[in-house]
Amino acid sequence: MKVALDYTPAVRQGGGIGRWTRSLVEALLTLDDARDVEFTLFYAGGGLTEKQQAFVKETEHKYTAPGGPAVRFVRLPFSEPALTRLWQRLRLPVPLELVARLGQPFALKNPLGNPDVLHFPDFVVPPHLGGHSLVTVHDLSFMITPECAEENLRKYLNAAVPRSVRKADRVSVDAAAIKSDLHERLGVPDAKMTVIYGGVGPEFHPVADKAYLEKVRARLKLPEKFLLYLGTIEPRKNLARLAEAWAALKDTDVGRGRKLVLGGRKGWLYEPILRRIDELGLRDEIVWLDFVPEGDLVAVYSLADLFCFPSLYEGFGIPPLEALACGTPVVTASNSSLAEVFTGAALMCEATDTGSIVAAIRRGLESLDGDGQLLAELQAEGLKRVSTFTWERAAREALALYREMAQKA
Q1: Is the pTM of this model over 0.85?
Q2: Is 89 within 8 Å of 124 (Cβ atoms)?
Q3: SS (H, E, C) the chain
Q4: Could you tell me which residues are beta bridge partners of residue 259?
Q5: What pLDDT is attached to residue 113?
Q6: Percent of the chain with pLDDT strictly greater than 70
Q7: Going by CATH, does the domain composed of 210-386 fall within 3.40.50.2000?
Q8: Which residues lie below 8 Å from residue 193, measured CB to CB, with a gap of 6+?
Q9: Higher model confidence: residue 158 or residue 105?
Q10: How confident is the model at residue 406 (pLDDT cuts 50, 70, 90)?
Q11: Cβ atoms within 10 A of the Cβ of 307, count?
Q12: Average of pLDDT values for 227-232?
């Protein structure tokens, strides 16, 4: 069986779908059951930064070593924005195979290797000539929380995603909640969709090495006690209400001596969040981290008293799952896939109710400062829950779907 997968998100996106794609491919290429599969990883190679070019070189060397899986890398000679304009905005039916051949003008065969299955993990399906197509739709936030999306991106996805799910032979989603959303909003038949939950890598686990944790604390200048958020700084993550909740708690018995740490890159519409933080007088009360290197994530999660993720809507929610895997109690919202994945293993709140967020955080901190029984119960259930979400499981389910699709005429 031959599978071609769009590796562009892995190359060009640090977090989110980029991490999802890197993790899934890593797991696929280590499956013994996939040794008979020929993988082609293609990516938009125009306009890459030096860091992105280095990643491609390192990854290609890693995956194409002798004795490893059958994998090839194919560079498309255009940038991702250029291909988006070509395929989705201008809607020119230039097939993927022709674009790939432009990067290898003297190739006698299709550079993509005439795949049985083409997997597009970033919402949209471009024109292509052969193979069965699978598109992964991670969420419908651009429809369900449109006020939280940048206008041009919202318009683009509102046009491109419905076309793509109609065109694709199969659709994979990250949770049953998203499957329900696609059925209700876009009329995608249940039989066309497959739920493939994301996972947590084995590197995420409770850390007992106190000296190591203190070194990371000192290097990143983290406070002794803190609540943590990691993710993009954008409206959908509901950080303005999280800030309001912290403003209500910071001078109380559970808040004194603690800080709120916000970590992640600035996304679209982050300015109103910062303005709200200023209005609350919290700019100097919050510790800001830039994008946290993957090598530091386990330590940062482990150092936190609570991980707070009161998002308005999520396709899956990998950061809170990573926090649970590190043994850190989680406060999250009872909506979308978050309710599906975390109910019973986390402190749940209503995302649109600041008082509910305050109450959930207070419960967690009171337990932490008290007998700890509630958090111990949640930690035990959290570690049990996390054990069911692995990238190996996701890879096996993806591989099974590839085989099912390839067998169809």
Answers
A1: yes
A2: no
A3: CEEEEECHHHHHCCCCHHHHHHHHHHHHCCCHHHCCCEEEEEEECCCCCHHHHHHHHHHHHHHCCCCCCCEEEEEECCCHHHHHHHHHHCCCCCCHHHHHHHHCCCCCCCCCCCCCEEEECCCCCCCCCCCEEEEEECCCHHHHCHHHCCHHHHHHHHHHHHHHHHHCCEEEECCHHHHHHHHHHHCCCHHHEEECCCCCCCCCCCCCCHHHHHHHHHHHCCCCCEEEEECCECHHHCHHHHHHHHHHHCCCCCCCCCEEEEECCECCCCHHHHHHHHHCCCCCCEEEECCCCHHHHHHHHHHCCEEEECCCCCCCCHHHHHHHHCCCCEEEECCHHHHHHHECCEEEECCCCHHHHHHHHHHHHHHHHCCCHHHHHHHHHHHHHHCCCCHHHHHHHHHHHHHHHHCCC
A4: 226
A5: 87
A6: 99
A7: yes
A8: 170, 171, 172, 173, 179, 182, 183
A9: 158
A10: very high
A11: 24
A12: 96
Q: What is the pLDDT of residue 70?
A: 84
Q: What is the pLDDT of residues 234-265, one digit of tens each?
A: 999 999 999 999 999 999 999 999 999 999 98
CA 226 distance to own-chain centroid: 24
Q: Distance between CA 365 and CA 132 in Å, rounded? A: 51
Single-letter code of the amino acid located at 206 = P
State the pLDDT confidence band at 108, using cuts at 50, 70 and 90. low
**pLDDT attached to residue 360:** 99
Encoded tokens for 407: 């067998």
Any idea where the domains of the chain sit in the sequence?
Answer: 2-199+390-406, 210-386
- What CA–CA distance (Å, rounded) separates 78 from 64? 23
CATH code of the domain made up of 2-199+390-406: 3.40.50.2000
Token duo for residue 68: 């490893």
Q: What's the mean pLDDT in 210-217? A: 97
Contact 241, 207 (CB under 8 A): no
Please give the single-letter amino acid code of residue 135. V
Same fold, 2-199+390-406 and 210-386: yes
- Nearest partner of 74 among 55, 93, 49, 99, judged by Cα: 99
User: Buried (b) or exposed (e) across 282-301, using 16+ Cβ within 10 A?
Assistant: beeebbebeebeeeebbbbb
Distance in angstroms (rounded) separating the CA atoms of residues 137 and 146: 16
| Amino acid identity at 175 | A
C-alpha 201 chain-centroid distance: 13
Decide if pLDDT at 107 tops 90: no
Mean per-residue pLDDT of the chain: 94
